[in-house]
Design brief:
Metallo-beta-lactamase, Chain A; single chain; about 200 residues; 12 strands; alpha/beta
Length: about 200
């Protein structure tokens, strides 16, 4: 399996391409720059299967609609963040002063402990509320990789919980759950550099 990291948009959100040996590809958090993402997909000659959002904030989903149409593939997210998806255009205008495509319409909703397959790989959905009600992480045990969205960053950073819909208590529980995974697991956050759970656990309180 190959994992490509594509920082996109004004907020440098990490879009990830998870590419299996048969060239099946999952697109994680396409936050912006759809043309750039499509160019990489073409260069790598991969076949996109699904778009998955770790949460509903606009800076992680702004390219989703264009990619859905380009490849005729579904957009998936936890249902608890659907209200954020619907507010994508207003949020982008408010925070960045930009106009976006219409928000993506989820074809299905992801559930805790659900498994998504790409070739012989299993991607496990882990509900990690706190930053948003529907935040999830994607765990690939075979690769020892965990896509944490904005729940956990390198160097001890965690997602904001000062929004009206956020929960400091929930994110503490989510972090405890994340840290129960093997320490060698590499975290791939929604912004910034990768790290490992072992490294990040030193910051845990």
């Amino acid at each position: 399996m190959k994992i490509l990291t594509l920082p996109v948009g004004q907020m440098k959100s990490n879009c990830y391409l998870i590419i299996a040996e048969n060239n099946d590809c999952l697109i994680i958090d396409p936050g912006d720059d759809a043309d750039y993402i499509e160019r990489i997909i073409t260069e790598k000659k991969v076949k996109p299967l699904k778009i998955i959002a770790t949460h509903g904030h606009f800076d992680h989903i702004m390219a989703a609609t264009e990619l859905m149409l380009a490849y005729n593939i579904p957009f998936l997210i936890n249902k608890k963040d659907d209200f954020l998806v619907k507010n994508m255009s207003q949020s982008a205008a408010h925070f960045l002063g930009i106009k976006t495509d219409p928000p993506p319409i989820p074809v299905g909703f992801l559930k805790d402990k659900e498994i998504i397959k790409a070739d012989d790989y299993e991607i496990r959905i882990i509900a990690t509320p706190g930053h948003t009600p529907g935040s999830i992480c994607l765990y690939i045990p075979q690769e020892k990789s965990l896509f944490t969205g904005d729940t956990l960053f390198a160097q001890g950073g965690v997602g904001r919980t000062d929004f009206s819909y956020s929960s400091p208590e929930d994110i503490k529980k989510s972090l405890k759950l994340i840290y129960s995974l093997p320490g060698e697991t590499e975290i791939k956050p929604g912004h910034g550099e990768s790290s490992t759970l072992a490294n990040e656990k030193h910051f845990w309180r």
